[in-house]
Amino acid sequence: MASQSQKTPIAIMIGGGAKLPAIIKAAQKPQSKFYIRLVVSHKKESWGLKFALENQIPAVYWNLPDYRSRMASGDSKARSNYMKDLGWFISQPQYRPKLLVFGGWDLVMDDNFFNFFKCNFGEGYAAINAHPALLPKKGEGDKITLPDGTISPVIKGEQTDVFKAVLAKRLTYFGPTIHFMKPTVYDTGAVIRRKFIRVGDIKTIEDLRAKFMPIEDEIFIEAIDEVISRYLN
């Protein structure tokens, strides 16, 4: 059984918080490699913030409407200040995670944020993200060969849009990817884990989601553990 002092501190960046329960449950296990120091959401009504607090985890709302209002008013530094302020806040001694875990965070983050979290692994920043589609591994280009030999294009976007594309393109497999993050460019970065899920006779987004979510939760935890074991222990 590892004590908290032997575990790696992480911060979770969320939208609504759908992925948070599985990560908290994993963190609470005695054999867990990590514990959660902070949960951050850009959504004021995020269910995940309340859930984190109920589990005695610090949680904060980072005011997105204020940033957008300042941008609309002509403040040319609104975006960079939002990024810098958030990066500075998370990197303070009482939090200072060794790994940022993005699960449902909607904003594209830039150097002003990521420069607080430089490291010597992944894409140079201690940050990983869950994407609701299969992303290419190094050398695969812009097409992914599925287990049955058919080809899938690289699909980007939010979960519902991805699932619509899976059905529209009649793909035989779909699945989640966990990858390292790069500043400014969304849904790119070295793949840590991905999982092929057979579509079968599924014809609705809801049924795809029901099959997808538990598998995404599973490989998300595996990816966190892998990064910690390989680079942070």
UniProtKB/TrEMBL annotation:
One of the Pfam families matching this protein, by short name: Formyl_trans_N
Chain ranges of the Formyl transferase N-terminal domain: 11-224
UniProt GO cellular component terms: cytoplasm
UniProt xrefs under InterPro entries: Formyl_transf_N, Formyl_transf_N_sf
Gene Ontology MF terms: phosphoribosylglycinamide formyltransferase activity
EC number: 2.1.2.2
Enzyme class: transferase
GO annotation, biological process: 'de novo' IMP biosynthetic process
Name assigned to this protein: phosphoribosylglycinamide formyltransferase 1
Phylogenetic classification of the source organism: Bacteria, Candidatus Curtissiibacteriota
Pathway named in the protein's UniProt entry: Purine metabolism; IMP biosynthesis via de novo pathway; N(2)-formyl-N(1)-(5-phospho-D-ribosyl)glycinamide from N(1)-(5-phospho-D-ribosyl)glycinamide (10-formyl THF route): step 1/1
Keywords, comma-separated and alphabetical: Purine biosynthesis, Transferase
